Amino acid sequence: xxxxxxxxxxxxxxxxxxxxxxxxxxxxxxxxxxxxxxxxxxxxxxxxxxxxxxxxxxxxxxxxxxxxxxxxxxxxxxxxxxxxxxxxxxxxxxxxxxxxxxxxxxxxxxxxxxxxxxxxxxxxxxxxxxxxxxxxxxxxxxxxxxxxxxxxxxxxxxxxxxxxxxxxxxxxxxxxxxxxxxxxxxxxxxxxxxxxxxxxxxxxxxxxxxxxxxxxxxxxxxxxxxxxxxx
Length: 231
What we know:
The protein is of the alpha/beta class. Helix content is 42%, strand content 11%.
């Protein structure tokens, strides 16, 4: 009996340690291949990927406060380089890291609402950022992803505003020969709102882990089209 108790105690201790070890393992990236080559740049909806998406933290570029405004300071805003904690402009970051693919998702923090009546200004600042990226790392392929939809709870930003901004982004992508990734097709419900299962916040803007899963799967569907841009 004493031997059995000792054995059970040792077994429980081993299982507990194994569980702790597994829980402590960091995320190393997506399922492999193409998605592991991607760096994600954006505002708060991108920043949350570090905690909620199956990507390595080093694949997510965001500011210290997680907000990235699409405004006159768009090329001066500093993101945290995950590997070192340095604060660099996007141009400085791409110049140093030279990511093969840079998925850009910008506009919901500041842009969609403030330029709702002046989409030319929205376009101007978006393209200003693209020009800075191209000058700093010509071999990096920008991928323009749609601004994500909002849920019914959103009080100021509407999906009509987002759809019009996404129309501008899609036009920029077409004119510049970039791939436009429409994530909204997999995130919206039948009435055009962010699906409740994909909304994590009372403001109706921020996303759940389940939302990021479908966003990544949707992005993977564009792999061939995106890779052709590097040829």
